[in-house]
Design goal:
116 residues, mainly beta, 1 helix, 8 strands, 6% helix, 50% strand, globular
Length: 116
């Protein structure tokens, strides 16, 4: 697992959501979440273009997912931040939350940057 500082450096300050996908792993009996973000306030037609910085993250063993006020147009997450969880959460070592509006948060055990 990467350091908290390195993971947090991956997130654009103002990130638009290009894709959010939840998968169920039947073998491990856990949910995993893929999140594709683009930098800045972009139009839908620009998502995935070479002009925008795009990052694809895959979070393993996701729990306690909270997702509010999502949809109805282009969704932005402002200032996502990962922190280490305290003891007592079996299987999850990390917590991610949106600092400014608290529209998304969840626990996870590890994350892979699929863009690298």
């Amino acid at each position: 697992m990467k350091s908290i500082e390195e993971i947090n450096s991956w997130f654009p300050k103002d990130a638009s959501v290009a894709n959010l996908q939840i998968d169920f792993d039947r073998r491990e009996l856990q949910y995993n979440l893929m999140l594709v973000l683009v930098d800045g306030d972009v139009a839908i037609r620009e998502i995935g273009s070479d002009v925008q910085k795009q990052i694809t993250l895959y979070f393993w063993n996701v729990s306690n997912l909270k997702l509010e006020k999502f949809g109805g147009g282009l969704q932005q997450f402002v200032h996502l931040e990962v922190s280490r969880m305290r003891a007592g959460h079996e299987g999850n070592n990390y917590f991610i939350e949106e600092i400014e509006t608290d529209n998304i948060s969840f626990n996870f055990s590890s994350v892979d940057n699929l863009t690298e």
